[in-house]
Give the backbone structure.
Amino acid sequence: MSIEYLKLENVIEAFRGLKHPVTKQYATDLQPQAILVFLMIARGHEEAEQALDHSAKWDCYVNVSEIKRQLRLSSASASRNVAAFTERGQRSMMNPATGKHGFGTPENPQGFCLVESAKNEMKPTQNILKLTNEGVKFAQSLKRMLKTSDPEGLQDLRTEPSVVTDKRTELDHKGKPIREDEVIEKTKRNYNQIITSQTRGMSLTEKQQWIQDFLKTIKTNNNPTLEKFLDKVAEDHGVSNEKTPTTAKELKEKEKFLAEEVRKVAKKEGFYEEEEEAVSDITRLYWEDKRKKQGGLTEEEEIQMMKDLGAIKS
């Protein structure tokens, strides 16, 4: 095994493992030039900390102009890549804490908070870039990976799967990565198991009626992904997927009856808990996709998301 490749894999995995403070998503789309920007800033910070002369110290720090010049980036690109590692963030986003669009602040950061800008004491008109305390810890962790000679202290991604997930991948309740299409397929399979077990021995008419009643008890909370999936289940079994029964009383009675029936099957077959968590995964994926497309959720949407997840899990 080449330990050099393994070290490089672990460094890149460390950058992928950074989490955005607002979206809570991993930095799987972090570009190589952004990684270079951080490494330049980290090297300048360390050189400055080791400098013996006070005036020479400030010349060691990197600034945005140097990054632009040395990496041959536009001014906007250089600023954007630096901002990704500061509390300000790359772009204006809606912050759930305030419900307003804007760039990050110390109270509500929208970047990784590893880098900060400061005035150059020797050249007051110039800003330099230095690491925050968290940035120093992260940089030191990278150095430890590169210095080690023991492969046992590194993660081998060929034998140990990454825990980092991209924007369209989630971890299931066992900690294994799953994609949205896999969640839907898994949920469909488990629903079909419930239907098969519960309707065994019924006539076609009785079976279709049971399925139709069963689908009415599932709360979709206007989740289009889940609604589309349930429509497909109904279509596969030749029934209509009505969203609500005739009366609220009828709904309550059928919910109570069918929930008890499904629990009986679940206890016997041992798969209902997994199915329930899969439905919750679909709901969570829907809201995370919505948050990504909008750049955040409104306060009302955040509340609705929590209600939806609570309703699905109940």
About this structure: The beta strands are 93-95, 100-102, 115-119, 127-131, 169-171, 177-179. Residues 272-294 form the longest helix (23 residues). Residues 271-275 have pLDDT under 50 and may be disordered.
